[in-house]
Amino acid sequence: MSSSTITIVKNANKKPKPQSKEIAFGRTFTDHMFVMDYEADKGWHEPRIVPYEPLTLDPAAMIFHYGQTVFEGMKAYRTEDDRILLFRPDQNIKRLNKSSERLSIPQVDEERVMEYLIELIRLEQDWVPDFEGTSLYIRPFIIGTEPSLAVAPSKTYKLMVILSPVGPYFKGGLKPVQINVEKQFTRAVKGGTGMAKTAGNYSSAYQAQAKAYEEGLADVLWLDGIEKRYIEEVGSMNIFFKIDGEVVTPALSGSILKGITRMSIIELLHKWDIPVTERKVSIDEIYQAYQDGKLEEVFGTGTAAVISPVGQLNWSGEKMDINNGEIGELSQKLYDTITGIQRGSVEDTENWTIEV
Amino acid sequence: MSSSTITIVKNANKKPKPQSKEIAFGRTFTDHMFVMDYEADKGWHEPRIVPYEPLTLDPAAMIFHYGQTVFEGMKAYRTEDDRILLFRPDQNIKRLNKSSERLSIPQVDEERVMEYLIELIRLEQDWVPDFEGTSLYIRPFIIGTEPSLAVAPSKTYKLMVILSPVGPYFKGGLKPVQINVEKQFTRAVKGGTGMAKTAGNYSSAYQAQAKAYEEGLADVLWLDGIEKRYIEEVGSMNIFFKIDGEVVTPALSGSILKGITRMSIIELLHKWDIPVTERKVSIDEIYQAYQDGKLEEVFGTGTAAVISPVGQLNWSGEKMDINNGEIGELSQKLYDTITGIQRGSVEDTENWTIEV
């Protein structure tokens, strides 16, 4: 048997599936998971689908001490005619490798991992929910497992993929959110790990998140770590501004995640002949545009929400109301187009989806 | 039974202990470990000493995805007259809580954790090696364990303490190292997690470390993330410079770890009436001092090495040789004093040590 041939151990005990669209995010997991191991002399080996079960690791496993880990997030959607679609999964696997490079984690064979992913989702296809707005969230992640306290890259790794049925991000449709422009805490800086999907970038944001929640705001808009002036991301999403008919989004500076929804939106806007620019965007510029009545729309983009319209930006007490707190026309059109492609109701002229 | 009363389950299968001072760092673990759990409604509870054994966690446990974790590192030393000493462990536990605050992890009761630590080390006292330069490395760590993919603080945690006998940091005594001044990668920035002992700060350094190793250098000197000009730390140690008779070390800016060896050195220098200043130190200033022949000594400080003399700094090709690549007089004196106090051969006038 080749070490790249997948083995499957089926779970005899099937769990009950969600019976409505009210599914809490990331708390229910399917019956199986994918696992593959890495050792220096064997490379990635023993790809296998096994029952979803606890992981057993030495307490000295490096993941617990030095955070050598990367992850991805994507979704499988069920179409009206009962097909299952993935949205640009090749981009996620490519980004997984990019993140791994930054964290000194060995690269995976992207095509093989795609095959394994599809095999897993095929086996778990009944878990892709068919209620409105629901999907099956896919979480690939790699962890360093060597039991050693030396501050050095792990010699062994585990790649796992777990699946979780999830409800609609916005209950009752798209809903604009209020966002705090964060001035105290920093998410990332040039030369750091901001462009990588790695664990440490997320828990380091909890204090700023908690501060926003206390003020009744939904999320955080991060500024650059150097001048605290240039806009980076919102929460764990990228951000776009429509100013006087033109769309702008912060350029990938090295500290911003290269979002796949972000990329898709830029491609759609090009196709629609709507001017879109990736460049440095300062919070002062946004405030000026707001004062001049030219800040037309603001929206976050990411796998979870696809488009998250921003109804208000709170910058040191200055409250910028955007589009009267309502969903902008472009935000709605982008949302409808991308979710339509993802769910098979809008023609996929870009070949973004893959059928499982 | 009070929830803070420790229970002990003894390990019937004792492992062989190291038979010489040649012990690889952080690869051998003792027979027992300490574990304590946290749940929102119970607080920290069920403190227990159990056989060292694998941890079983859900693959969705938050530690694997969002890196909510903190740790500490300290050592137990065996004295000539067979007592076991800890060096300022109260400071480590205090710092654990500081780190936890930044990572939104619940605080521990510092006095209780100290009692648990001492209980564990007492039980494992035969594991404190008596070969020259050896010690028992102590690794407390806390991980978020809730099985959930929501980007939010975990509702459950585990605090664990594992112990590892370690050999001398420098084989054959103190040895100056060559260090690369890192210009591309960034360790931390104001508003980030640089002051916390948290996993993500360590794996994010691996690429810079690898670059230094390729050039035959032992470690990395980090500059600030904003101007890439001010000195922060070396590797995972703090750094000191002796310039024209005066000792300077970077001030704690929010992105530098508050080292316990660093603190102890500053206190000793004050006591010895040697001028010592905590302030911003730029790499240009160091280069100027070097050119003027005033850069007398450079050394890193940390739990692992205590003092690590720097024999050469490599800054974009400029090689600064320090003290002819030899150990400075002050570095040696600080090393002898602190290791002497730690091992009970120098009088502990500051009450830094605690006998187990």
**CATH-wise, what's the superfamily of the largest domain in chain A?**
D-amino Acid Aminotransferase, subunit A, domain 2
Overall shape of chain A: globular
> Uncertain runs of chain A with pLDDT below 50, 5 residues or more?
none
The counted number of beta strands of chain A is 19
Cα-atom radius of gyration of chain A: 21 Å
β-strand amount of chain A: 25-35%
Task: List the total number of helices of chain A.
Answer: 8
Largest interface: A-B, 68 and 68 residues
CATH topology of the largest domain in chain A: D-amino Acid Aminotransferase, Chain A, domain 2
Share in helix of chain A: 10-25%
The second-level CATH architecture of the largest domain in chain A is: Alpha-Beta Barrel
Largest sheet of chain A: 9 strands, mixed
What is the domain tally of chain A? 2
CATH top level of the largest domain in chain A? Alpha Beta
Instruction: Round the mean pLDDT of chain A to the nearest integer and report it.
Output: 95
